[in-house]
Specification:
Number of helices: 1
Oligomer: single chain
Shape: rod-shaped
Largest sheet: none
Helix content: 40-55%
Order of helices and strands: H
């Protein structure tokens, strides 16, 4: 065996994606590591703000077009 498990305990708490970030045999963090969860959440939040920004831009274009049509 080329690697050694650092933490072999299993967390029985199923209330959410909480993990202490177990290290795998290859030295990498498990997919449920807190930093990985934070990274995914940050990306989703950024995607939401990008979508909101596009809605605001569409609304501004609509208002500008109605304003220009009204006073032309």
């Amino acid at each position: 065996m080329s690697g050694v498990l650092v933490n072999r305990s299993v967390d029985m708490d199923t209330s959410g994606p909480v993990s202490l970030g177990r290290r795998l045999a290859n030295g990498r963090q498990s997919p449920t590591a807190p930093l990985k969860i934070f990274g995914h959440a940050k990306k989703k939040i950024n995607d939401i703000f990008i979508e909101i920004s596009s809605y605001i831009d569409d609304g501004n274009q609509f208002l500008e077009s109605t304003y220009n049509n009204q006073f032309s």
